[in-house]
Amino acid sequence: MPKLNILLVDNDPGRSAIVKQALEDAGHNVIAKLNDDANLSKNVLALQPDIIIIDMDAPGRDTLEQMREINRDQARPIILFSAPNDQRFMQEAIRAGVSAYMLDGLNQTQIMPIVEVAIARFREFQALRKELDDTKSKLADRKIIEKAKGLIMARKGLDEDGAYQLLRTNAMSQNKRLIDVARILVSVEDLLG
Amino acid sequence: MLGTASADYLDVYSQNLYKVMSPTTNNLPEKISLNLGFIPLTDCAPLVIAKEKGFFHAEGLSVSLSRESSWANIRDKVAAGVLDGGHMLAPMPIAASLNLDGLNTPMLTALSLGLGGNAITVSHALHQQLLALDEQVADPYHSVQALKILISHNQRNGLPPLTFAHVFPFSCHNYLLRYWLASAGINPDKDVRLVVIPPPLMVSALASGQIDGFCVGEPWNSQAIAQGIGAAVTSTVDIWHNSPEKVLGVTCAWAEQHPNTHQALLRALLNSAQWLEHIDHRAEACAILTANQYVPVAIQDLRVFEHGEFQYSADKPALPAPDFNVFYRYAATFPWVSHAEWLISQMQRWGHIPTSINTQEVAAKVYRPDLYRQAAQALQLPTPSIDRKTEGSHDKAWHAASDSGDITMGRDGFFDQVNPELRRTDA
């Protein structure tokens, strides 16, 4: 069975590197990786991929849709969601943020494993990014709490533990999160201090 | 997901102008929390206003609006049930029902989100060439005749074809651009190159010389004109007066499973369209559209929407264009089956679908005036008694019979078929 040629379009270079690697590890052939979709139709015509894996948020998707119209005489890309005709599969792809087009006339069963690899990697990447964002915001929160504690210590002459306890009691009595009380304190200090 | 609702819904109750019907026990919405998709364009306003001015809330709905980056995304997410419905190009539910997108998910519309709203803008260089041939190029007839002369000249001299962009294969932009070109004997499939570019990227594509002109919705024409990158040669309502544009699209399965929610959605949008109809509400609407990044442009780019005047080029004063965007009057929200029939006829004309398709049958399945009437009557709004009008047959304002008195209708002539004296919208 000849290898299928895959074109990967994703403006997130980190994610597309991971997806490309995964596809190649699974024995597929990634002929090109585009980081932007500005000249998408030109690239598709020049590269003649069998399958296009594209970031769902790429505005260039509408350009691919039109290629069905202009390439009436040639093989044209059709959206792959139509293949399994399965809403769950489609939702999974949408939640992972990936969309795929294949050339009209290709066998769908040949293509499904490729799309599954892409969906899995997109989803993994999304989870990683969320974890990173969460970690970043936790770090930022911790900095604010430290600053608020420092302010209380200076004003009230309390030690670190005492400052923390005061912050905590205050948050509980106001039915607020600790970080929210700390944030108010820091912003008031910025304003008045 | 955008912004938090600054919903001033008490406002809605306090104004008798907008009749609000609370759901009774028999017609409680099956689903209350909804996600609707939209593309950043002026004509997403009925959705945004329904949320921000509390019209959805008044119907007991909690709606999240999701800004999408492509029409394909809206279609796929609606088909997969990730979105409950969305801002769609009028031909999209038709294409879905004919399975042209291959998703096997028939869609329908029971409400138009307005009439008009697009224009054809060409690059500064092309505008200069057209002006040299005809000084009156801010007019669909003069501009396309000049374009025909230029294209013939270019072909004789072996120059590459001009490239025009529109926004989606199944769009009113595509079919009105083709109609306009073909009226002067320009073959849109041979004499020019037609490409698709997403609306927010149009202006930069014109600036970089990647394209020579485009047909797109506002505010993107105004932005290109204000920046001196291009000049408009016609609005699409000057090609076909009061032409259809966007609709509220849902899948047929969703409409069947959520008949009461669908009705509540239609009522909310009917109230929103009436609110938008008042030109003195437009300044507030502009502020709402640009805040929270619904339509991420400078507020002055929304001038045609705010004041009803359109500036064709940076060096000319703005001209009155009261019908550039029509949200409610002229039965603008009514899903005219004849609109769908015209669009299907154009899909056939350009070989996008076989001529064997039964136009009337498909149009009547996708466009649902029966569902519209149910919602409009609940609000005691007049609805046309007919489902179809003879498109192109009204050169002047006319009256459509309704269940409660006549409705004043705008003209619906095509520029190449009407008396030249009446060609301009502001004539």
Question: Can you put this structure into words, describing what you see?
Answer:
The complex is a heterodimer of chains A (193) and B (427). Chain A is an alpha/beta fold. Chain A folds into two domains: 127 residues, D-Maltodextrin-Binding Protein, domain 2 (3-Layer(aba) Sandwich), CATH 3.40.190; 58 residues, Winged helix-like DNA-binding domain superfamily/Winged helix DNA-binding domain (Arc Repressor Mutant, subunit A), CATH 1.10.10. Chain A is built from seven helices and five strands. Chain A is elongated. The termini of chain A are far apart. The model of chain A has no long low-confidence stretch (mean pLDDT 85). Chain B is α/β, with parallel strands linked by helices and 427 residues long. Chain B has two domains: 273 residues, D-Maltodextrin-Binding Protein, domain 2 (3-Layer(aba) Sandwich); 119 residues, Periplasmic binding protein-like II (D-Maltodextrin-Binding Protein, domain 2). Helices cover 38% and strands 16% of the residues of chain B. Chain B is built from 18 helices and 16 strands. In chain B, strand 12 and strand 13 form a beta hairpin. In chain B, helix 2 crosses helix 13, helix 6 crosses helix 7 and helix 13 crosses helix 18. Chain B is globular, with a radius of gyration of 21 Å. The N terminus of chain B is likely disordered. Chains A and B meet through helix 3 and helix 4 of A and helix 4 and strand 8 of B.
